[in-house]
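Q: My labmate handed me this sequence with no annotations at all. I'd like to see what the chain might look like in three dimensions before we decide whether it's worth expressing. Could you predict it?
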Amino acid sequence: MPYKIIRYICLKYLHKGGYSVEHVDQVCLSLRKEYGKCVKMAGLLGRPDMLFIFDAGEVERVFRGEDGAPHRPSMPSLNYYKHTLRKNFFGEEKDCAGVIAVHGDSWAAFRTKVSRVALSTGAAAQYTEQVGDVADAFINRVREIRNSKSETPDDFLNEVHKWSLESLGLIALDTRLGCFESCEGSESQRLIDAVNTFFLCVGELELRTPWWRIYPTAMFKKYVAALDTILSVTLSHVERALQECKDNSSKSLLQDLVTAAGPRVAAVAALDMFLVGIDTTSNAVASTLYQLSKRPEVQEKLYKEITGVLQGRPLKAGDVSQMPYLKACIKEVLRMYPVVIGNGRQLTKDTVICGYNIPKGTQVIFQHYVMGNSDEYFSNASEFRPERWLNRSTYKHHPFASLPFGFGKRMCLGRRFAELEMHIIICKMVNAFRMEYHHEPLEYHVHPMYTPNGPIRIKLIDR
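A: Here is what I predict for the chain of 463 residues:
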C-alpha cells in the first residue's frame, strides 16, 4: 500500500485538541484511538514528518530487520554542537564523536571501542559498594531536609538529580563530585549548574520551534555554554585518570577506557553518559519512589524481600540479583510511566509497516507509552502489578511493547550502570523508610522526561 495514503495530521492537532507539548502522551493516546496503529504526523514547523507506530508486532519486525548501523533520530541541537560548533574537537580524531547524534560507520566504530569495556561482565557490579555509599549519603541528606511533617521538600526532584549526578560522576569520571556539599564556584557546583542548564534548555530547543537554527537565541547560547563546561570538566578528570593509570595498578571504568581506547574516546564517552544518563535515571527513581509511596502493600512486600536478603548487613555485589521483586517494581513503573515515552528510528531501507510501503529515510516513532498501557499487550494494563514480570505465563506480555532501554545495536550503552544505580537507591530507600503520600495525585507530563508534574512530597518514616 503506498505511503502517501496513510492518514496524517499536522501540528494544529495539538491546539485543536487543547494539548501542549508537555502533554504529548495524551496526544499519542488520541492518535491511536482516532487513527489506528500507523499514523503520519506532518506539518511540523522546522521538523521532518514523523510516522507513529502503536503496534508492538511491527516494532519487533523493524528492530529485528535492522542492519549493522541503525539510524536513531537524535537531538538536532546536539548534532549541531558536535558536528559544526565543536567539530575541531569531535572530528580531530577519527570515529571519536560518541554515540549520541552520531550515525553510520563512525557510530559503530565508537560503540565497539566503548562496549568492550562498558558491557563487559562485572563492569557495573564492581561499583556496587561505591554506588551504595552515594545512596547512603542521599538518605542522610533527605533525613536532614525533611520538613516538620517528615515530608520531602518541594524541590525533592532536584535532590534526586544531585544523587544521579554524584552516582554517574563516580562511574564515568571515577570521582566523588561532592554534589550534596558543593559550594558556590567549586568545580562540582559548576558541573551541577551546567548539567541543570543543559536539561532546562534541551526540552525547549528540541520540542518547540527551532529558531536557534536561524539565529543563536539566548537559550541556545546558554545551552552551548553548558555543554562547553561539561566537556571541559570531563576532560580534566580524564587527564587525571590517565596520570593515575601510570601511577598504580588499580583500574576503574574510566581508566579502562583510557587504556583500551585512548583519552579522547574516554572523554567523549563520559560526556555522552552525562548527557543521557542523569535526567533519565533521576526521573525514573523519583517516579518509582512516588508510585511506591502510594502503594503500601507493594512497598511492604518489597521491604520483606530486601530484609530477607540483607539480614541486617550492608549491601554487597550480587545482592540485587537475589531481589526479583525489586527489579519487577522498577520495570512496572517504567512500563506505565516510561521516562522516554517513545523510541525512534530513521529507516535505512524501504520497509513495510502495517501494510504500508514506508520509504528509506522516514522517521518512525515507536510509541511505548501507549503500547505499554494497552490491554492488547499487557493483562490489566491500567493496574500496577509487578508480579506480571515474575510470572509471565499468567500475565499477557509483549516483549517489544515496553523497551525503556531500547533494543538491539542501539540499546542504551549505560543500561547496566543505570539499573545498578536505580536498584541500589530504591533498595536503600525502602530499607530506611516507610514512604507515604498524602496529597492530590500528580499527573505526568513531558519536561523533557516523562515525570510527575508538581512537588513530590513524600512522607519518610524511619523504620
